[in-house]
Amino acid sequence: MSEKRNYDAEFCGNLPIHHINSIQDYGYLLILDNHTLNVIQISENFSAVTNEAPAQMVNKHLSLWFSQEGVDQIAKLIKGDAKDRIPINLTLKNDSKQSHFDGLVHIKKDYTLLEIEAASKADQKSFADVFQEVRQFISAMEHASTLEEVCNVAIKQLRKVSGFDGVRMYTFDAEWNGTVIAEEISGALESYLGQTFPASDVPKQARALYLKNPFRLISNRDYKPIRLYPVINPLTNAFIDLSDCNLRGVASVHLEYMQNMNVSASMSIRVLREGKLWGLISCHHIGPNHPNVDMRYIFEWLSVEISNRITAILNQEDYQQSAFRLEKRTTITDLIYAKDDIIEGLLDDENLNILSLFNAGGVVVKIGNRTESRGDIPDKSEVYNLMLWLEGKGIEKIYGNDYLGNVYEEAKAYEKVGSGILVIPIDGRNGDYVICFRPEVIQQIKWGGDPEQVINVDKDGTNYHPRNSFKLWLQTVYGQSLPWSNNELEIAESLRNFIFEFRTKQLYN
Known about the structure:
Elements: H1 10-13, E1 22-23, E2 28-33, E3 39-43, H2 47-50, H3 54-57, H4 68-79, E4 86-91, E5 100-107, E6 111-118, H5 127-143, H6 147-162, E7 166-172, E8 178-185, E9 196-197, H7 204-210, E10 215-218, E11 226-229, H8 252-260, E12 265-273, E13 276-285, H9 293-339, H10 342-347, H11 354-358, E14 362-367, E15 370-375, H12 380-393, E16 399-401, H13 415-418, E17 420-427, E18 432-438, E19 443-448, E20 455-457, E21 464-466, E22 472-477, H14 486-508
Antiparallel strand pairs: 1-11, 2-3, 2-6, 3-11, 4-5, 5-6, 7-8, 7-13, 8-9, 10-12, 12-13, 14-15, 14-18, 16-17, 17-18, 19-22, 20-21
Helix pairs in contact: 5-6, 5-9, 6-9, 9-14
């Protein structure tokens, strides 16, 4: 037997990836003092542009290298309301080639991060080139009516627009494990459709960064890391926070992870639902691949469109389920009124009772000296002990658990009928409850590699490495039921409030 574990590893989640203090080599980073526009930190590779050593460039004004028009624009942005990811175009000063740069401005309290790279080349697709494809993309998504259709349309069109060898859609579960629900691949990429990857593959601090950045680009895993000079930000006396930067360097463990997947370039795009990370779209390429700035703006735009369409479909499904349950709940409360009895109203109608309302296999209702049940439930002594346990825990609010044996050892004896419970406390101090039971649902999880081998530490403890195999690894999970949805918990709370009011009226009438 196997138990489902939480793989959101603390070790991976504590790595300071936003303070990595280096950048990728496809661009340049300048840190500016907001008051003076002097350069206070600079990426060492900018020397190739100016023919000056980093030590010669710090504490000098930005206008020494860039046109006054661009410098004035940055000064205006610093005084404005927008603070993050502001696009800008800059021209190198006193340069015969008139070098042009695409940039992003990130404004902090005392300093500004300016990340720049050479302007887009004409041999790559521009915004105008793909506009028609994007319109078709959005139209196709609007005509998709199910989550599966939207995800498949999205990755198919993204691969067509981007040219990556493979595109996959992941969705996160409650423990932040990511399952591949759609896939478009070619070449030597391995199929992972239907497989689940442990939460530590996208640890919590990386997930937090996706709330700040719509995408994460690593155009070449063999890039040469570029250091910042000086190492310490003179205004904060600490490593600089590069959370907002597209250029932010990559932890070596992730580059090794990419190597083990046989990919040289990756681009991950967030999918949000109501401000929270719902999933990721992961683009992979066998060789290096560097989408230009225009293409990345398109990806950013499509991230919003995909997120909105997925949110709309899921919200519609939630609304329909909510309306369906609310109608059932109203019928049950009407029965309670008609019979003037809570237990009879909850249980007597064979076609529409509390079992059908909550998709439960069994239910026990105890009020005062009366105890009645329907469906498949544990033995009486086991139910009695469960109620004592609930009393001991002081359950006074709606309580839902889909893995009861994990918190209550005795429940493992009856997990086939009661792996999950939904408790509606009527009067917890007197042990009066409605307890709905859900049976065990045996799950087979197709992991992308052994989730127990997420990180391998060298014998001397100095270095660590990601798992080197993503071969299908099957796990059978026992002892859990279908989870209780948020809407079911809300309906349960609504029913509890009704029962409380109904009992109060009975007592005083």
